[in-house]
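Our preliminary data section would be incomplete without showing what the modeling component actually yields. Below, a chain of 98 amino acids is followed by its predicted structure, encoded as tokens that our downstream tools consume directly.
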Amino acid sequence: MQEENKKTLKEAAKILQKISHPLRLELVLKLISSKCCVKEIGEEMKLPQATASQHLKQLRESSIVEDNRKGNTVEYCINDPWIIELLEFLKSKIKPIA
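Predicted structure:
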């Protein structure tokens, strides 16, 4: 049982490490409310598409976001209920910027 807890803690630490970057945190907070493609994310966050793609790649490789191809576009979303719950909690603690 203790080994399983250690494994869970390592997985949680890996997720927290990946979302600790301010841009990635902002990105995943946007994705908890709706699916988006790289172009939409780049425009909304005022980022070059290449930068948005790099951050999405890291999040995808860590299984934080999933990608789904729709024709010529790829939509990104978060489907893991644990990650969504964690992000909703974080979102509730962040004061809106005026």
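The chain has one domain: 15-92. The radius of gyration is 14 Å. Preliminary results of this kind motivate Aim 1 of the renewal.
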